[in-house]
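Lab meeting, action items carried over

1. Structure of the two-component assembly. Owner: GW. Status: complete.
Input record:
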Amino acid sequence: GENVEQHPSTLSVQEGDSAVIKCTYSDSASNYFPWYKQELGKGPQLIIDIRSNVGEKKDQRIAVTLNKTAKHFSLHITETQPEDSAVYFCAASSAAGKSTFGDGTTLTVKP
Amino acid sequence: KAGVTQTPRYLIKTRGQQVTLSCSPISGHRSVSWYQQTPGQGLQFLFEYFSETQRNKGNFPGRFSGRQFSNSRSEMNVSTLELGDSALYLCASSPIDRGEQYFGPGTRLTVT
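Predicted assembly:
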C-alpha cells in the first residue's frame, strides 16, 4: 500500500520567515496530494491541494510543488504569521475517498 | 453551506462495550470516509462509503464497521472496545470522485 513520509516533525520559525514541509510517497498510482492544517481541538482543514498533472499551485502565501518523478511534494508558507502555528499534514491519494497521511509537522511561528 | 457534523463530540466507554458514532456530511457530498487519529499512529484510514456501499477499507479488525444511509449520513460502530481504541475519530466527506475531503471536528472516544 501507499506510504507517506513527512519531514520535519517539528518546525520553528520567526514571524515573517518562510516555512517548508516536505513529503515523499511510494505509490506511483497516487494522483492527488492535499495538505491539511489542524488546530487544537479541531479536525484537519484542507488548505491547498495539487493533482498529478500540475507541478505547482499557489494560493496567496501558500504554495505546493510536486515532483512526480522523484515522488515528492512540498508545502511552502511565506511571510509566516503566529496564526499559522498548527499541525500540518500531507496526504497522498489514488482512490477517491481514501488518503494516506504523513505523520504531521508541528509548526510554531514565534512573534 | 454547513460543514461536516459529528456526534457525539466526546464519549467515555468501558472496555468490552460497543459504541456508535455518527457523521452528517456536507449537503450534496455522497462520499464519507472515517479515520482514526492517535498520537502514536497518526491518521489511519478506516473505511469509505459511497452511495451506501463500502468502497475502500483500511487495515482495521472486523470490530470496526460502518454503514451509510440513503441521505449519505454515516455511522461507524466499534464492538468489544479495547483500551487501544481510545482516539479521535474523524469523518470526512467528499464531492463525488473529486478527491478533496472536508473533515468534521471528530469524536473523542476514551475507553477505560
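2. GW to write a short summary for the group page. Key points so far: DSSP finds no helices and eleven strands in chain B. The longest strand of chain B covers residues 42-50.
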